[in-house]
Amino acid sequence: MPMTRIALRQGLGPDYKARLSRLLQQALETHFAVPEGDCFQLFDEYGPEDRVFSRHYQSAGRSDHFLLLSITAGKPRSPEQKAALYQALAQQCQAELGLDPADLMVVVSYNQAGDWSFSGGLGHSLEGTR
Question: Which InterPro entries match (predicted)?
């Protein structure tokens, strides 16, 4: 049950976002044990004045194409699952979007099942957590 906030520069257009959405969902389902159809993504577009980031911290060098994926998940994944996800995202973003891997940052965080209310004002129980 991950929810991903996708922070990107303004003006990339609906086709770019649709391709990114598809490759992100495919990577989550393949490498992060996310069930098919469990898709929650929010795109946040920012102008140059609203994006402040280090060009070189822990990176070979970020450009104006910097893309941040903030993934919140309800259950922890293994280090191997996270590594596979990071690699798949970097490879697919480069292959399908032309994004330099140095421009991709992924942050994974976790919370508890009770921190989610999917609809109807009802809390999510531990049973059936993804």
Answer: Tauto_MSAD, Tautomerase/MIF_sf
